[in-house]
Inverse folding.
């Protein structure tokens, strides 16, 4: 009962002091707003890069060409052997006849040339198309398949894919790094701003201590005040995310630069990012004021 | 039974200055004690150690059964709730009214609203300021501000009231008024009062228990007397 009474009083005092020390509060709020805006942008970028990377990875396929004189039985054996490799996710077979038909559909010239080929003298090869579980291991998987008897050629767009994978990985790492660094910078900035606010109330804290207020009673209003500041500071970033991202998405029609880079659908993505930003703001405000007030709680 | 007991207390500050040398004394419950001595005699350090603003370098300090010297920072508030403190510079919060300043103590302790109101008004009545509850501290005279500070110190009905030169900023008439208020509290509530002062007139006039400190050492501890003795 007493706990709730103290808590209720703390919340009341927190709101009161946000408005009573409005100019200092405004300093903290604008500091939080600016840093949260940057954090929000980097979160949007990170998620989009991640989304794009996963999409690309899903599209990667290994194509296995088999020898021309392969028998039905051997094809089955090869399929079994490929399936037994750990990293292989799915496998599908395309006979040389099917490949021929597909190529004939693609262009008139192919259609013309291939129309004379019959089943016996079709020079094309039977193929397997393979999806892997872990794209990073695609190189090793391809090598393992190449060693299997009756496999003629293995292709997965080696050079380009390897480089893309490296590029994606570093892009992801960099964007994570940027978000974490920004959050840390935000915490420091906010701690300092809140310290200024609290410094002006040093006397109040010392009197509270003298009359016998427990550390909990003294700290709670300041911590709630920090959360309120964080909440107020995240209003503009949240609006920027909600309206800005939707506008961007609509402007580019869902794709960035080329058809290859697809943006994430705004809903529910923007709500999730807004949620993250609000939580970061409140947490950072809370940590900031808790660490600032701790200094004055020592005897 | 002794309410306050000090045994072989030494206090050396971090800068090397020694404020208290081997102090041993005890004070009984319900007494009114003047702690006197010139500047640098250790009066303030003595008071500060009683409410655990300062820790003794060695020795034992017992206040109402609590070993103050061994009290941890986190537990200090438990001691502070059991005593009231009055300072020379009043230490009121300028943005709060007289009523709010006194009620602040009760609120800090998590008291209920009606209990806070009842006790706050009672304390303000005791110091004779019930008619000024809506004023702000800077609208009051020095003596009145000090009386608000006293009301704040006694609102929680502590067993012990510590006063560190409460009359230091006041003229003789007002000083006498403050000491009379303290005397009244001592008599009606049975509160033990320890008051550090260097005001000869007050000490001579009141004829109370006197502890004389000089250069951090206990010079005299007399049951009843004045400054000159």
């Amino acid at each position: 009962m007493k706990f709730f009474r103290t808590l209720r009083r703390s919340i009341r005092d927190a709101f009161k002091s946000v408005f009573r020390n409005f100019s200092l509060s405004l300093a903290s709020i604008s500091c939080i707003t600016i840093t949260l805006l940057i954090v929000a942008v980097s979160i949007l970028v990170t998620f989009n890069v991640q989304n794009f990377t996963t999409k690309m990875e899903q599209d990667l396929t290994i194509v296995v060409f088999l020898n021309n004189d392969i028998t039905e039985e051997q094809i089955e054996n090869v399929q079994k052997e490929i399936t037994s490799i750990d990293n292989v996710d799915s496998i599908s077979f395309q006979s040389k006849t099917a490949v021929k038909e597909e190529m004939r559909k693609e262009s008139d010239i192919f259609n013309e040339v291939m129309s004379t080929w019959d089943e016996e003298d079709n020079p094309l090869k039977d193929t397997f198309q393979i999806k892997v579980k872990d794209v990073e291991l695609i190189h090793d998987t391809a090598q393992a398949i190449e060693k299997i008897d009756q496999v003629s050629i293995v292709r997965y767009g080696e050079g380009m894919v390897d480089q893309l994978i490296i590029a994606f990985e570093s892009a992801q790492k960099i964007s994570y790094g940027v978000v974490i660094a920004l959050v840390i910078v935000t915490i420091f900035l906010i701690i300092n701003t809140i310290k200024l606010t609290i410094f002006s109330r040093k006397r109040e804290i010392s009197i509270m201590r003298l009359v016998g207020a427990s550390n909990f009673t003294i700290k709670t209003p300041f911590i709630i005040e920090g959360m309120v500041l964080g909440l107020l500071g995240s209003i503009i970033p949240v609006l920027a995310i909600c309206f800005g991202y939707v506008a961007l998405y609509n402007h580019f029609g869902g794709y960035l630069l080329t058809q290859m880079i697809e943006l994430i659908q705004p809903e529910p993505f923007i709500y999730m990012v807004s949620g993250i930003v609000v939580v970061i703001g409140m947490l950072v405000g809370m940590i900031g004021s808790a660490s600032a007030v701790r200094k004055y709680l020592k005897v | 039974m002794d309410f306050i007991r000090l045994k072989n207390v030494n206090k050396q500050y971090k800068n090397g200055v020694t404020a208290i040398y081997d102090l041993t004394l005890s004070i009984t419950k319900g007494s009114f004690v003047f702690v006197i001595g010139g500047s640098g005699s250790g009066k303030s350090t003595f008071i500060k150690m009683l409410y655990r603003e300062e820790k003794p370098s060695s020795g034992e300090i017992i206040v109402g059964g609590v070993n103050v010297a061994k009290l941890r920072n986190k537990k200090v508030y438990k001691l502070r709730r059991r005593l009231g403190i009055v300072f020379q510079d009043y230490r009121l919060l300028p943005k709060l009214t007289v009523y709010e300043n006194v009620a602040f103590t009760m609120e800090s302790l998590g008291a209920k609203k009606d209990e806070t109101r009842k006790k706050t008004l009672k304390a303000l009545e005791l110091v004779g300021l019930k008619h000024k509850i809506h004023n702000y501290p800077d609208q009051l005279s020095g003596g009145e501000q000090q009386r608000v500070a006293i009301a704040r110190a006694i609102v929680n009905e502590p067993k012990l009231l510590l006063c560190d030169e409460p009359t230091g900023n006041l003229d003789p008439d007002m000083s006498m008024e403050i000491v009379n208020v303290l005397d009244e509290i001592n008599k009606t509530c049975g509160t033990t009062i320890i008051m550090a002062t260097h005001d000869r007139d007050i000490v001579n006039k009141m004829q109370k228990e006197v502890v004389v400190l000089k250069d951090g050492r206990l010079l005299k501890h007399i049951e009843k007397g004045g400054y000159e003795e």
Remarks:
- Chain B touches chain A through 25 residues (CB under 8 Å).
- Chain B is about 35% helix and 30% strand.
- Chain B has two domains: 1-82+158-229, 92-157.
- The radius of gyration of chain B is 17 Å.
